Amino acid sequence: MTNLESFIKKEINLNDKEVFPIDFEKKRYWVKKARVTNSSKMHKLFYFLFNIDILLPVSYKTSEESILFETNKIRKLQNVGVLVPNIIYQDKYNFVLEDCGETIYSYLRKSDITEDKFYYFINKILEQLAIIHNANYFHGGTQSRNFTYKDKRVYVIDFEESFDADIDIKTLQFRDLLLFILSLTKIKANFEIDYKLIINKYISLTQNNSFRDKLKRFINQISFFIMISKINFIYNKMGTDLKSFFSLIEILKTLDIIDINKNRNRDVI
Fold first, then answer.
1. What is the tens place of the pLDDT at every residue in 243-268?
2. Which of these, 43, 105, 134, 217, is most buried using a 10 Å CB contact count?
3. CB of 80 within 8 A of CB of 131?
4. 191: β partners
């Protein structure tokens, strides 16, 4: 057993948190403990009633199954060229990753972020997401907090979510991009985010042209909820996340006019 392994085991026994950093010989690592993955009964009920892709419930996995699933997926994605942190230790109930920087969200949420810097990060995220999707995989939790930045490279983390084997991969990839875009609504930038640009960039990287049709069907599917969300009484009762979701859908309604060839270019810095 190496000194690092001994140190890791000691720190795991001393810390009750599910995810936490440790420092050893001037290097940082992240410990992730096994935890059950499952969706709440309410979540499952809403999906049963409304059958909306973004509400897909995750599959139940025991804590041990969750560890095996995530570590195996990290290795598979690493083999197809996705930038993921190296696994440096694993046992039945824990695994440890090399540090791969700060979350992208910590950069995007800064009030003084420039528009060019914003799209620099967005482009790098989409490049990694495209590698995942082009290899016929999905992420499962594509919020901006699950991408990190270190040494001018964007890494992808947090792959514990899985879904019923009968779910089509294109549906899961559609959910990936929609979740990522939705996570951007929480960012208080001093400029208007160009969601058309983001979706065009994704389609150009993946040739996933079915995204447009899926988006149209999705908007039609929730049109009733969009309508009732505009009623003052209901709107005032909604939480911030739900308001952001419906605001985003209103913006995405215009995406049927997307034309990749006319997409304005925004180079990374």
1. 777 777 777 776 654 444 444 455 54
2. 105
3. yes
4. none
